[in-house]
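Need tokens for this chain, all 664 residues.
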Amino acid sequence: MSTQTPHFYRPEIDGLRSIAVLSVVLYHFGFAGLKGGFVGVDVFFVISGFLIGGLLWREASETGSISLKRFYVRRIKRLAPAYVAMALASLIAAYLIVLPFEFREFGKSLIAATVYLSNVNFFRDAGYFDTVSEDKVLLHTWSLSVEEQFYIILPLLMLLLLRNTFSLRIVLWISLVVSLIACVWITQRSQPAAFYLFPFRAWELLAGVILAIEVQRRPFKHVAFLSYLGITLILASIAFIPAGAQFPGWHALFPVLGTVLIIANGQQKNIVNRTLASPAPVAIGLISYSLYLWHWPVLTLSTYYRGAYSGHLETTFWLGISIALAYLSWRFVERPVCRTEFSALLTFTAAALASALLVLAGGLIYLKDGMIERFEPPLRTHIEASADFLQDWSRCYVSTDGPFLGLELCPIGPEQAPEILIWGDSHVRALKEGLEQAAFDADTPALLIWRAGCAPVFGLVKNETSASPVQNEACSNANAQIETALQAGDFKRVLLVGRWGYYAQGSGTGLDAGNQVALSVEGTTGSQAEQFSQGLIGTVQRIQGFGSEVFVLKAIPEIRDYDSRHIARALAGNRLSDEALATAVEIPAAAHEKRVSDLSQTLAQIDANGAALLDPAPFLCAAQTCSALYNGKAQYFDNNHIINSAALRIRSLFDPLFASESNP
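Here are the structure tokens for all 664 residues:
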């Protein structure tokens, strides 16, 4: 978050920074009334574009050129020291308390943040089983990377078009419009891309650049109303814009426009500008970069070790720690370095050495898989489980022709035309290693198609809280495409896999009870459970009608309160008693039966209609209980997905599916 001092100091911009940083920080710390506090980053982007664009335009106007060396020396001196201090402190703290899975990811993110690719890294990791944001100590550096990428491109662009300022302005305007349209379009299709990636955020920075150029080119008539409108747009955005799949999209226009209006009218004497330029907001604005840098590691590492804050008092305490560290960083790192003259050679050399140190540290952490040797053996059971959920998808590809056009296909077993289709949701992923070994053991080729949260049911229409509208629609479209493909009769057998209780009851259980899914099935009536049951029966019958033999995997037992990462963290922080641990890793077998009771008659009818049922419960449960542990080792990743070693252990479950002559 740039805090470059412009040629003529504008205190109200520091005040505007205070709103931006406080909205982000207080939002992250969970303070009420800040539903859209994350839009403070958008405010920062506009400010950064205005200051950097104005600085470059002014230099070009006064000297007829732009010194890239001088520009990047200023950027390094301004941004690198505080970042390096924060990164080193976070590295030490993470080494002491962060478990191997997250520590390995920390190492990767440390490398990415140091080379200004943090946004790309977190975009690539924004998957179904990605580490939750509260575990990503350097997540906040994504916005710094967006700005750094901007700092690389903008000076070069301006230098290239310096002799034709009209063309430069046209290029900037066209780039803004294209980036904005792309942002709105991609938000509906890949929200993580719109959120993290530079091309879809560039318009916010360009809004500031264009404003800086235009206010220097011609006098601007100041109107107090614009300041009032601007602050209203920003505060309303902070209060009301919801987080989720619709942001940034067109919602980001409100804080961006509000910031543009305030900056454009900033030198007009009115109550908004006087308030922003008053001592308290300016003081917070001066430390805003350091506060942004430090608040997130303080928040993530403290909650990682201690668990969720106990109340407002503890929350305020850690917020105070963040502010204190920010002040110290500004007072003893940022300001001294900025005020001291260093040669360009020394500046670049110091930056290169510090970057190399951080990259080497991150690489070592990643290559050593998060250094599990830091922890005692009893805790390693759950640590190892948390790391045993990365399958080999190297054979997967997106089909470019044929009936599966556009779908991701994953062959398993011998490299021959697949005889078996295994189709389902994320439980297919969890079982992949076992399915693949079973396919090789039987020398039978098969094909996996899976989509998280998407039940293998024809005519399914779903609205899942953890999915975007585009993802929900993609589920229905993919299922319809698979139905068409199966009509060709190319597969001898089809296995259906799903978290059946989730779809029938409409919600997760225990730790993921907040996951909700509302669904209907075309051509069915009744409650959600009834429609889903009818849809599953109809799907089986349709596939049988296509000439394929059908297998249905009964539900994986759900250990409602188990998550290997949560358990490991709680044990490492001495926050879990023996009694609580015993409760978390085990459920009565009757609880599993109750969870799937809505579908018991459905499965019985499917069985009676000639399909084969494969039941994982005997492999995962004892007579009276189902446990996340097996012979002292964990067999679950979270409350409903088993780990790779467990999938391999139970692979004989799939022998009937892969047998050359199956007997359902």
